[in-house]
Amino acid sequence: MDDRKLVWAGRALTALCLPPFLMGIFMMMTKNPQVIEGMAKYGWPASSIGTILTLEAGCLVLYLIPQTAVLGALLLTGYLGGAVATHLRAGEPPTAALVVAVMAWGGLYLREPRLRELLPFRRKRAK
């Protein structure tokens, strides 16, 4: 596949993983009652909303800047790993966090040629 097509596919996949982050950031900024209830449900104090908001927004900004995208993806993976652990601890499936993490890395993989060189997918050779 043409590199330009891969980059555009990566941008599209990246765009698809943005709504959950943007919704979470917006809901925390507006101190939505669902956020307060969710924090209490999972055992997090409401006072930690500002810290979590800062972490999520900071990681997302780093992920969206091409020069810092790999660092941002690593940090988002850690952030989403915390979400996975929280859901597992509560006895819930962590499906959403896992899907968003895979989409974030998939989008970065497609739009970053250096990452594709570092982690190439190889085809079986015909005999």
Written description of the protein model:
The protein is mainly α and 127 residues long. The protein has one domain (3-118). It is 76% helix and 0% strand. The protein is built from 6 helices and no strands. It is elongated and about 60 Å long.
Put the structure in a nutshell.
With about 130 residues, the protein is mainly alpha-helical. The protein has helices spanning about 5-30, 35-40, 50-65, 70-90, 95-110, 115-120. The chain has six helices and no strands.
List keywords for this structure.
mainly alpha, 6 helices, elongated
Helices and strands in order:
Blueprint: H1 3-29, H2 33-41, H3 49-64, H4 69-89, H5 95-111, H6 113-118
Helix pairs in contact: 1-3, 1-5, 3-4, 4-5
Number of helices: 6
Q: Residue-averaged pLDDT, rounded?
A: 92
Contiguous runs where pLDDT drops below 50 for at least 5 residues: none
Number of beta-strand segments: 0
Helix content: over 70%
- The total domain count is 1
State the end-to-end distance.
Answer: 23 Å
Shape: elongated
Class of secondary structure makeup? mainly alpha
What letter string, H or E per element, gives the SSE order?
A: HHHHHH
What proportion of the residues form beta strands (DSSP E)?
A: under 5%
Largest sheet: none
